[in-house]
Amino acid sequence: IMFATLSDRLADTFKNLRGKGRLSEADIDATAREIRIALLEADVALPVVREFVAAVKERATGAEVSQALNPAQQIVKIVHEELVTILGGETRRLRYAKTGPTVIMLAGLQGAGKTTLAAKLALWLKEQGKSPLLVACDLQRPNAVNQLQVNGGRVGVPVYAPEPGNAGGIEHGGNPVQVAQASIEEAKRKLHDVVIIDTAGRLGIDAELMQQAADIRAAVQPDEVLFVVDAMIGQDAVTTAQAFLDGVGFDGVVLTKLDGDARGGAALSVRSITGKPVMFASSGEKMTDFDLFHPDRMASRILDMGDVMTLIEQAEKAFDADEAAKAAAKMGAGQFTLDDFLKQMQQLRKLGSMTKLMGMLPGMGQFRDQLENFDEREIDRVQAIIQSMTPAERENPKILNGSRRLRIANGAGRTVTDVNSLVDRFGEMQKMMTQMMSGGGMPGMPGMPG
Ligand code: GDP
Fold it and tell me: Where does this protein hold GTP (predicted)?
Protein backbone atom coordinates (compact mmCIF):
# COMPACT_ATOMS: atom_id res chain seq x y z
CA ILE A 1 0.00 0.00 0.00
CA MET A 2 1.21 3.46 -0.96
CA PHE A 3 3.14 5.38 1.68
CA ALA A 4 2.61 2.65 4.30
CA THR A 5 6.03 3.19 5.89
CA LEU A 6 5.58 6.91 6.30
CA SER A 7 1.96 6.61 7.43
CA ASP A 8 2.85 4.19 10.20
CA ARG A 9 5.80 6.21 11.37
CA LEU A 10 3.91 9.47 11.51
CA ALA A 11 0.98 7.81 13.27
CA ASP A 12 3.38 6.64 16.00
CA THR A 13 4.86 10.09 16.28
CA PHE A 14 1.49 11.74 16.75
CA LYS A 15 0.42 9.09 19.23
CA ASN A 16 3.16 10.26 21.56
CA LEU A 17 1.75 13.78 21.52
CA ARG A 18 -1.84 12.83 22.11
CA GLY A 19 -3.40 14.14 25.29
CA LYS A 20 -0.67 16.67 25.96
CA GLY A 21 -2.15 20.01 26.90
CA ARG A 22 1.00 22.00 26.20
CA LEU A 23 4.00 21.01 24.16
CA SER A 24 7.40 21.59 25.71
CA GLU A 25 10.46 22.40 23.67
CA ALA A 26 11.58 18.83 24.26
CA ASP A 27 8.28 17.51 22.86
CA ILE A 28 8.72 19.57 19.72
CA ASP A 29 12.35 18.54 19.31
CA ALA A 30 11.44 14.89 19.68
CA THR A 31 8.60 15.22 17.19
CA ALA A 32 10.83 16.97 14.66
CA ARG A 33 13.43 14.25 15.07
CA GLU A 34 10.88 11.50 14.52
CA ILE A 35 9.45 13.20 11.45
CA ARG A 36 12.96 13.48 10.08
CA ILE A 37 13.56 9.76 10.57
CA ALA A 38 10.17 8.95 9.05
CA LEU A 39 10.97 10.94 5.91
CA LEU A 40 14.46 9.49 5.58
CA GLU A 41 13.06 6.00 5.91
CA ALA A 42 10.55 6.82 3.20
CA ASP A 43 13.57 7.57 0.97
CA VAL A 44 12.84 11.27 0.65
CA ALA A 45 15.78 13.30 -0.68
CA LEU A 46 17.85 14.90 2.09
CA PRO A 47 17.42 18.56 1.09
CA VAL A 48 13.66 18.02 1.02
CA VAL A 49 13.74 16.39 4.46
CA ARG A 50 15.70 19.31 5.90
CA GLU A 51 13.38 21.88 4.44
CA PHE A 52 10.29 20.02 5.61
CA VAL A 53 11.46 19.49 9.17
CA ALA A 54 12.62 23.10 9.46
CA ALA A 55 9.24 24.38 8.29
CA VAL A 56 7.30 22.14 10.69
CA LYS A 57 9.56 23.01 13.59
CA GLU A 58 9.32 26.72 13.00
CA ARG A 59 5.55 26.63 12.91
CA ALA A 60 5.38 24.23 15.87
CA THR A 61 7.18 26.68 18.12
CA GLY A 62 4.95 29.56 17.02
CA ALA A 63 1.70 30.97 18.33
CA GLU A 64 -0.57 28.77 16.18
CA VAL A 65 0.44 25.80 18.33
CA SER A 66 0.97 27.38 21.75
CA GLN A 67 -2.44 29.05 21.56
CA ALA A 68 -4.25 26.08 20.07
CA LEU A 69 -6.88 24.28 22.14
CA ASN A 70 -5.37 21.00 21.09
CA PRO A 71 -1.67 21.44 20.28
CA ALA A 72 -1.17 17.84 19.13
CA GLN A 73 -3.99 18.21 16.62
CA GLN A 74 -2.46 21.47 15.45
CA ILE A 75 0.83 19.69 14.74
CA VAL A 76 -0.99 17.13 12.59
CA LYS A 77 -2.61 20.01 10.71
CA ILE A 78 0.76 21.65 10.14
CA VAL A 79 2.32 18.42 8.90
CA HIS A 80 -0.64 17.95 6.57
CA GLU A 81 -0.25 21.43 5.13
CA GLU A 82 3.49 21.05 4.70
CA LEU A 83 2.96 17.67 3.00
CA VAL A 84 0.54 19.29 0.57
CA THR A 85 3.17 21.91 -0.13
CA ILE A 86 6.02 19.51 -0.90
CA LEU A 87 3.68 17.38 -2.99
CA GLY A 88 3.05 20.44 -5.14
CA GLY A 89 0.18 22.42 -3.58
CA GLU A 90 -2.66 22.83 -6.06
CA THR A 91 -3.56 20.00 -8.43
CA ARG A 92 -1.87 20.76 -11.73
CA ARG A 93 -4.28 20.02 -14.56
CA LEU A 94 -3.48 19.37 -18.20
CA ARG A 95 -3.26 22.44 -20.44
CA TYR A 96 -5.09 22.01 -23.72
CA ALA A 97 -4.14 23.84 -26.91
CA LYS A 98 -6.41 26.75 -27.84
CA THR A 99 -6.37 25.79 -31.50
CA GLY A 100 -5.54 22.52 -33.20
CA PRO A 101 -4.82 19.27 -31.45
CA THR A 102 -3.20 19.31 -28.01
CA VAL A 103 0.18 17.60 -28.24
CA ILE A 104 1.42 15.61 -25.25
CA MET A 105 4.88 14.12 -25.44
CA LEU A 106 6.03 11.35 -23.09
CA ALA A 107 9.67 10.85 -22.16
CA GLY A 108 11.39 8.52 -19.74
CA LEU A 109 13.56 5.47 -19.28
CA GLN A 110 12.73 2.06 -20.72
CA GLY A 111 10.70 0.04 -18.26
CA ALA A 112 9.33 3.15 -16.56
CA GLY A 113 5.89 2.09 -17.75
CA LYS A 114 5.67 4.64 -20.56
CA THR A 115 3.83 2.53 -23.11
CA THR A 116 1.30 1.34 -20.52
CA LEU A 117 0.90 4.88 -19.33
CA ALA A 118 0.32 6.22 -22.86
CA ALA A 119 -2.72 3.95 -23.14
CA LYS A 120 -3.95 4.78 -19.62
CA LEU A 121 -3.73 8.48 -20.40
CA ALA A 122 -5.55 7.93 -23.69
CA LEU A 123 -8.37 6.14 -21.88
CA TRP A 124 -8.55 8.85 -19.25
CA LEU A 125 -8.78 11.52 -21.98
CA LYS A 126 -11.50 9.54 -23.70
CA GLU A 127 -13.48 9.55 -20.46
CA GLN A 128 -13.08 13.35 -20.43
CA GLY A 129 -14.77 13.44 -23.82
CA LYS A 130 -11.59 13.81 -25.86
CA SER A 131 -10.66 11.92 -29.00
CA PRO A 132 -6.99 10.99 -28.59
CA LEU A 133 -4.49 9.55 -31.06
CA LEU A 134 -1.53 7.52 -29.83
CA VAL A 135 1.74 7.90 -31.72
CA ALA A 136 4.53 5.34 -31.74
CA CYS A 137 7.85 7.17 -31.94
CA ASP A 138 9.89 4.49 -30.23
CA LEU A 139 11.45 3.00 -33.34
CA GLN A 140 14.45 1.52 -31.57
CA ARG A 141 13.10 -1.16 -29.32
CA PRO A 142 12.02 -3.94 -31.70
CA ASN A 143 8.66 -4.60 -30.11
CA ALA A 144 7.73 -1.10 -28.98
CA VAL A 145 5.40 -0.20 -31.86
CA ASN A 146 3.58 -3.48 -31.51
CA GLN A 147 3.27 -3.07 -27.77
CA LEU A 148 1.69 0.36 -28.15
CA GLN A 149 -0.71 -1.08 -30.71
CA VAL A 150 -1.73 -3.81 -28.28
CA ASN A 151 -2.25 -1.32 -25.44
CA GLY A 152 -4.10 1.07 -27.76
CA GLY A 153 -6.37 -1.80 -28.72
CA ARG A 154 -7.14 -2.50 -25.07
CA VAL A 155 -8.50 1.02 -24.58
CA GLY A 156 -9.97 1.43 -28.06
CA VAL A 157 -7.68 4.27 -29.14
CA PRO A 158 -6.05 4.26 -32.61
CA VAL A 159 -2.27 4.18 -32.89
CA TYR A 160 -0.35 6.09 -35.53
CA ALA A 161 2.83 4.26 -36.46
CA PRO A 162 5.23 4.46 -39.39
CA GLU A 163 4.24 2.19 -42.26
CA PRO A 164 7.02 -0.07 -43.49
CA GLY A 165 8.31 1.48 -46.71
CA ASN A 166 7.57 5.11 -45.79
CA ALA A 167 10.26 7.68 -45.17
CA GLY A 168 9.70 7.28 -41.46
CA GLY A 169 9.54 3.52 -41.88
CA ILE A 170 11.26 1.13 -39.59
CA GLU A 171 13.48 -0.51 -42.18
CA HIS A 172 15.00 2.91 -42.98
CA GLY A 173 16.28 3.11 -39.46
CA GLY A 174 13.13 5.06 -38.67
CA ASN A 175 12.92 8.79 -38.21
CA PRO A 176 10.92 9.53 -35.08
CA VAL A 177 10.89 13.28 -35.73
CA GLN A 178 9.17 12.72 -39.09
CA VAL A 179 6.71 10.31 -37.55
CA ALA A 180 5.84 12.81 -34.81
CA GLN A 181 5.32 15.60 -37.33
CA ALA A 182 3.25 13.44 -39.64
CA SER A 183 1.09 12.28 -36.73
CA ILE A 184 -0.11 15.82 -36.09
CA GLU A 185 -1.25 16.12 -39.71
CA GLU A 186 -2.96 12.76 -39.33
CA ALA A 187 -4.70 13.98 -36.16
CA LYS A 188 -6.00 17.05 -37.98
CA ARG A 189 -7.29 14.95 -40.87
CA LYS A 190 -9.03 12.46 -38.58
CA LEU A 191 -10.25 15.12 -36.14
CA HIS A 192 -8.38 13.91 -33.09
CA ASP A 193 -8.09 16.64 -30.49
CA VAL A 194 -5.21 15.18 -28.47
CA VAL A 195 -2.01 13.56 -29.73
CA ILE A 196 0.03 11.43 -27.31
CA ILE A 197 3.56 10.85 -28.53
CA ASP A 198 5.40 7.90 -27.00
CA THR A 199 9.15 8.37 -27.43
CA ALA A 200 11.99 5.88 -27.17
CA GLY A 201 13.45 4.94 -23.82
CA ARG A 202 16.78 3.42 -22.89
CA LEU A 203 17.83 1.44 -19.89
CA GLY A 204 20.04 4.26 -18.67
CA ILE A 205 20.48 7.97 -19.22
CA ASP A 206 22.09 8.33 -22.61
CA ALA A 207 23.06 11.36 -24.70
CA GLU A 208 21.68 10.05 -27.98
CA LEU A 209 18.32 9.30 -26.40
CA MET A 210 18.15 12.77 -24.88
CA GLN A 211 19.01 14.32 -28.23
CA GLN A 212 16.28 12.38 -30.01
CA ALA A 213 13.67 13.44 -27.48
CA ALA A 214 14.91 17.03 -27.64
CA ASP A 215 14.65 16.94 -31.46
CA ILE A 216 11.07 15.68 -31.35
CA ARG A 217 10.25 18.34 -28.81
CA ALA A 218 11.73 21.09 -30.99
CA ALA A 219 9.95 19.81 -34.09
CA VAL A 220 6.42 19.44 -32.72
CA GLN A 221 6.40 21.99 -29.87
CA PRO A 222 4.22 19.94 -27.52
CA ASP A 223 1.72 21.64 -25.23
CA GLU A 224 2.89 19.35 -22.44
CA VAL A 225 6.06 17.28 -22.12
CA LEU A 226 5.53 14.67 -19.41
CA PHE A 227 8.40 12.86 -17.78
CA VAL A 228 7.36 9.31 -16.87
CA VAL A 229 9.15 7.68 -13.95
CA ASP A 230 8.87 4.48 -11.96
CA ALA A 231 8.11 5.45 -8.34
CA MET A 232 9.59 2.19 -7.09
CA ILE A 233 13.13 3.38 -7.85
CA GLY A 234 12.75 5.91 -5.02
CA GLN A 235 15.37 8.65 -4.88
CA ASP A 236 16.92 7.50 -8.18
CA ALA A 237 13.78 8.89 -9.78
CA VAL A 238 14.94 12.32 -8.72
CA THR A 239 18.38 11.88 -10.32
CA THR A 240 16.81 10.66 -13.57
CA ALA A 241 14.31 13.52 -13.52
CA GLN A 242 17.12 16.03 -13.16
CA ALA A 243 18.95 14.50 -16.15
CA PHE A 244 15.83 14.67 -18.33
CA LEU A 245 15.14 18.19 -17.17
CA ASP A 246 18.60 19.25 -18.34
CA GLY A 247 18.62 17.14 -21.51
CA VAL A 248 15.06 17.45 -22.81
CA GLY A 249 13.08 19.61 -20.42
CA PHE A 250 9.57 18.76 -19.27
CA ASP A 251 6.46 20.40 -17.82
CA GLY A 252 5.20 17.74 -15.47
CA VAL A 253 5.94 14.35 -13.97
CA VAL A 254 3.94 11.13 -14.15
CA LEU A 255 4.64 8.62 -11.40
CA THR A 256 4.03 4.99 -12.32
CA LYS A 257 3.88 1.84 -10.20
CA LEU A 258 2.85 3.74 -7.08
CA ASP A 259 1.04 0.54 -6.08
CA GLY A 260 4.41 -1.14 -5.59
CA ASP A 261 5.96 1.76 -3.73
CA ALA A 262 5.34 1.52 0.00
CA ARG A 263 7.80 4.30 0.78
CA GLY A 264 6.91 7.23 -1.43
CA GLY A 265 10.33 8.88 -1.68
CA ALA A 266 9.98 9.77 -5.36
CA ALA A 267 6.53 11.29 -4.94
CA LEU A 268 7.68 13.38 -2.00
CA SER A 269 10.98 14.57 -3.49
CA VAL A 270 10.52 15.13 -7.19
CA ARG A 271 8.55 18.36 -7.02
CA SER A 272 10.91 20.12 -4.62
CA ILE A 273 14.04 19.03 -6.45
CA THR A 274 12.95 19.69 -10.04
CA GLY A 275 10.39 22.43 -9.48
CA LYS A 276 8.02 20.52 -11.77
CA PRO A 277 4.67 19.23 -10.51
CA VAL A 278 3.54 15.64 -10.41
CA MET A 279 0.51 15.68 -12.70
CA PHE A 280 -0.61 12.07 -12.89
CA ALA A 281 -0.18 8.90 -10.90
CA SER A 282 -0.40 5.37 -12.17
CA SER A 283 -1.07 2.72 -9.57
CA GLY A 284 -1.67 -0.71 -11.04
CA GLU A 285 -1.74 -3.05 -13.99
CA LYS A 286 -5.33 -2.23 -14.96
CA MET A 287 -5.92 0.47 -17.57
CA THR A 288 -8.16 2.35 -15.14
CA ASP A 289 -5.51 2.48 -12.40
CA PHE A 290 -4.61 6.03 -13.28
CA ASP A 291 -5.69 9.51 -12.20
CA LEU A 292 -4.71 13.11 -11.72
CA PHE A 293 -2.32 13.57 -8.83
CA HIS A 294 -4.00 15.58 -6.08
CA PRO A 295 -1.44 16.76 -3.48
CA ASP A 296 -4.09 17.43 -0.83
CA ARG A 297 -5.70 14.02 -1.19
CA MET A 298 -2.31 12.33 -1.16
CA ALA A 299 -1.34 14.14 2.04
CA SER A 300 -4.62 13.03 3.64
CA ARG A 301 -3.89 9.46 2.69
CA ILE A 302 -0.42 9.62 4.18
CA LEU A 303 -1.86 10.91 7.45
CA ASP A 304 -4.60 8.29 7.31
CA MET A 305 -7.32 10.90 7.05
CA GLY A 306 -8.68 8.95 4.12
CA ASP A 307 -9.29 9.98 0.54
CA VAL A 308 -13.03 10.29 0.48
CA MET A 309 -13.06 12.57 -2.57
CA THR A 310 -11.49 9.93 -4.79
CA LEU A 311 -13.78 7.28 -3.36
CA ILE A 312 -16.84 9.37 -4.20
CA GLU A 313 -15.60 10.08 -7.71
CA GLN A 314 -15.00 6.40 -8.35
CA ALA A 315 -18.38 5.50 -6.96
CA GLU A 316 -20.03 8.03 -9.23
CA LYS A 317 -18.29 6.49 -12.21
CA ALA A 318 -19.26 2.92 -11.36
CA PHE A 319 -22.76 3.36 -10.00
CA ASP A 320 -25.78 3.98 -12.13
CA ALA A 321 -27.67 6.75 -10.33
CA ASP A 322 -31.12 5.42 -11.32
CA GLU A 323 -30.27 1.93 -10.18
CA ALA A 324 -28.90 3.28 -6.91
CA ALA A 325 -32.08 5.28 -6.26
CA LYS A 326 -34.22 2.22 -6.97
CA ALA A 327 -32.10 0.11 -4.64
CA ALA A 328 -32.35 2.73 -1.91
CA ALA A 329 -36.13 2.87 -2.25
CA LYS A 330 -36.33 -0.90 -2.01
CA MET A 331 -34.12 -0.91 1.07
CA GLY A 332 -36.40 1.56 2.77
CA ALA A 333 -39.48 -0.47 1.96
CA GLY A 334 -37.86 -3.65 3.22
CA GLN A 335 -38.04 -5.11 -0.30
CA PHE A 336 -34.33 -5.38 -0.95
CA THR A 337 -33.78 -8.91 -2.24
CA LEU A 338 -30.76 -11.15 -2.69
CA ASP A 339 -30.95 -10.34 -6.37
CA ASP A 340 -30.59 -6.62 -5.64
CA PHE A 341 -27.77 -7.47 -3.30
CA LEU A 342 -26.01 -9.37 -6.08
CA LYS A 343 -26.39 -6.42 -8.46
CA GLN A 344 -24.99 -3.98 -5.91
CA MET A 345 -22.08 -6.25 -5.24
CA GLN A 346 -21.29 -6.47 -8.93
CA GLN A 347 -21.36 -2.67 -9.21
CA LEU A 348 -19.14 -2.36 -6.20
CA ARG A 349 -16.76 -4.80 -7.85
CA LYS A 350 -16.37 -2.43 -10.77
CA LEU A 351 -14.82 0.09 -8.39
CA GLY A 352 -11.75 -2.07 -7.99
CA SER A 353 -10.36 -4.25 -5.26
CA MET A 354 -11.83 -4.06 -1.78
CA THR A 355 -8.36 -3.55 -0.36
CA LYS A 356 -7.87 -0.41 -2.43
CA LEU A 357 -11.33 0.92 -1.64
CA MET A 358 -11.11 0.38 2.08
CA GLY A 359 -7.67 1.94 2.09
CA MET A 360 -9.26 5.23 1.07
CA LEU A 361 -11.40 5.41 4.20
CA PRO A 362 -10.14 7.50 7.12
CA GLY A 363 -8.51 5.65 10.00
CA MET A 364 -7.95 2.46 8.07
CA GLY A 365 -4.20 2.48 8.68
CA GLN A 366 -4.57 0.44 11.86
CA PHE A 367 -6.34 -2.30 9.87
CA ARG A 368 -3.66 -2.46 7.19
CA ASP A 369 -2.77 -6.08 7.91
CA GLN A 370 -6.35 -7.27 7.78
CA LEU A 371 -6.90 -5.26 4.60
CA GLU A 372 -3.94 -6.82 2.90
CA ASN A 373 -5.21 -10.23 3.88
CA PHE A 374 -8.76 -9.55 2.74
CA ASP A 375 -9.70 -12.41 0.50
CA GLU A 376 -11.30 -10.99 -2.62
CA ARG A 377 -12.53 -14.48 -3.39
CA GLU A 378 -14.99 -14.22 -0.52
CA ILE A 379 -17.05 -12.01 -2.81
CA ASP A 380 -16.87 -14.60 -5.58
CA ARG A 381 -18.14 -17.24 -3.16
CA VAL A 382 -21.10 -15.12 -2.10
CA GLN A 383 -21.90 -14.42 -5.75
CA ALA A 384 -21.73 -18.10 -6.63
CA ILE A 385 -24.19 -18.98 -3.87
CA ILE A 386 -26.71 -16.33 -4.90
CA GLN A 387 -26.36 -17.31 -8.55
CA SER A 388 -27.23 -20.90 -7.66
CA MET A 389 -30.61 -19.81 -6.31
CA THR A 390 -33.78 -19.65 -8.37
CA PRO A 391 -35.42 -16.23 -8.90
CA ALA A 392 -38.13 -17.17 -6.40
CA GLU A 393 -35.53 -18.06 -3.79
CA ARG A 394 -33.67 -14.83 -4.31
CA GLU A 395 -36.92 -12.93 -3.93
CA ASN A 396 -37.93 -14.72 -0.77
CA PRO A 397 -35.23 -16.60 1.15
CA LYS A 398 -37.89 -17.80 3.62
CA ILE A 399 -38.75 -20.64 1.25
CA LEU A 400 -35.24 -22.06 1.57
CA ASN A 401 -35.79 -25.46 3.22
CA GLY A 402 -33.13 -28.09 3.79
CA SER A 403 -33.23 -29.68 0.36
CA ARG A 404 -33.13 -26.32 -1.43
CA ARG A 405 -30.13 -25.30 0.67
CA LEU A 406 -28.33 -28.52 -0.20
CA ARG A 407 -29.04 -28.03 -3.92
CA ILE A 408 -27.69 -24.47 -3.77
CA ALA A 409 -24.60 -25.54 -1.87
CA ASN A 410 -23.85 -28.22 -4.44
CA GLY A 411 -24.48 -25.82 -7.31
CA ALA A 412 -22.09 -23.25 -5.88
CA GLY A 413 -19.48 -25.75 -4.77
CA ARG A 414 -19.90 -24.64 -1.15
CA THR A 415 -21.23 -26.27 2.03
CA VAL A 416 -24.72 -25.93 3.46
CA THR A 417 -23.13 -24.05 6.37
CA ASP A 418 -21.87 -21.41 3.90
CA VAL A 419 -25.36 -21.08 2.45
CA ASN A 420 -26.90 -20.81 5.92
CA SER A 421 -24.46 -18.17 7.01
CA LEU A 422 -25.08 -16.05 3.90
CA VAL A 423 -28.85 -16.27 4.32
CA ASP A 424 -28.58 -15.37 8.02
CA ARG A 425 -26.29 -12.45 7.36
CA PHE A 426 -28.54 -11.18 4.61
CA GLY A 427 -31.51 -11.36 6.99
CA GLU A 428 -29.59 -9.28 9.55
CA MET A 429 -28.60 -6.80 6.89
CA GLN A 430 -32.18 -6.42 5.70
CA LYS A 431 -33.29 -5.69 9.25
CA MET A 432 -30.55 -3.09 9.68
CA MET A 433 -31.39 -1.41 6.39
CA THR A 434 -35.02 -1.04 7.26
CA GLN A 435 -34.08 0.48 10.61
CA MET A 436 -31.58 2.86 9.07
CA MET A 437 -33.88 3.99 6.31
CA SER A 438 -36.83 4.53 8.61
CA GLY A 439 -34.47 6.59 10.77
CA GLY A 440 -34.12 8.95 7.82
CA GLY A 441 -30.41 8.48 7.09
CA MET A 442 -29.54 7.07 3.70
CA PRO A 443 -26.48 4.86 3.59
CA GLY A 444 -24.12 5.74 0.77
CA MET A 445 -23.37 2.16 -0.02
CA PRO A 446 -24.86 -1.18 0.81
CA GLY A 447 -23.29 -3.19 3.60
CA MET A 448 -20.67 -5.68 2.68
CA PRO A 449 -20.73 -9.35 3.43
CA GLY A 450 -18.26 -10.76 5.90
P1 GDP B 1 8.09 1.18 -21.03
O2 GDP B 1 9.31 0.42 -21.36
O3 GDP B 1 8.42 2.44 -20.29
O4 GDP B 1 7.19 1.43 -22.19
O5 GDP B 1 7.31 0.30 -19.94
P6 GDP B 1 6.01 -0.61 -20.07
O7 GDP B 1 4.82 0.23 -20.31
O8 GDP B 1 6.28 -1.71 -21.02
O9 GDP B 1 5.91 -1.16 -18.58
C10 GDP B 1 6.91 -1.96 -17.98
C11 GDP B 1 6.26 -2.92 -17.00
O12 GDP B 1 5.69 -2.24 -15.90
C13 GDP B 1 5.11 -3.73 -17.61
O14 GDP B 1 5.21 -5.04 -17.15
C15 GDP B 1 3.86 -3.06 -17.06
O16 GDP B 1 2.78 -3.96 -16.95
C17 GDP B 1 4.33 -2.59 -15.71
N18 GDP B 1 3.58 -1.41 -15.23
C19 GDP B 1 3.37 -0.26 -15.88
N20 GDP B 1 2.68 0.62 -15.10
C21 GDP B 1 2.45 0.00 -13.92
C22 GDP B 1 1.79 0.37 -12.68
O23 GDP B 1 1.28 1.48 -12.49
N24 GDP B 1 1.77 -0.58 -11.70
C25 GDP B 1 2.34 -1.79 -11.85
N26 GDP B 1 2.27 -2.64 -10.83
N27 GDP B 1 2.96 -2.18 -12.98
C28 GDP B 1 3.01 -1.31 -14.00
Answer: 108-115, 198-202, 256-259
